[in-house]
Every structure is written in structure tokens, then in C-alpha cells.
Amino acid sequence: MENVQTMIDAKALTGTLMTMTAATGSWLDVAEPIVTMTVTILVGGATLWYTIERALKLRKERKDK
Q: What global pTM score does this model have?
């Protein structure tokens, strides 16, 4: 009887691992565009912020002359 339980556990473990592997792959397919969009928005926002700060600094320097 103990042999049967070990075999069932191995099959359950194998099935669980296969399901987890498939779920991980599909999760990455979903997460990649979201991460890409998030990073793009953050980098774009930081670039916009820097550009505005730089433009304001240059404008202030021009007015001070």
C-alpha cells in the first residue's frame, strides 16, 4: 500500500510542477507588456521632468542677463 501512495504523490507532484511551469509562462506573457508600458511611462515622465526643469533653468538664466 505504501508503494501506491508514493506513486500517486510523484504523479501529483509532476502534474503540479507542469501546471506551475505553464502558469509561469502565461503569466510572463501577460506581465511583459505591462512592465514594458510601466517602464516606458516612468522613463518618459522622468525625461519630461528633466526637460522642463532644464528649460526653466535656461529661461531663468536668459532673463537674468
A: 0.54
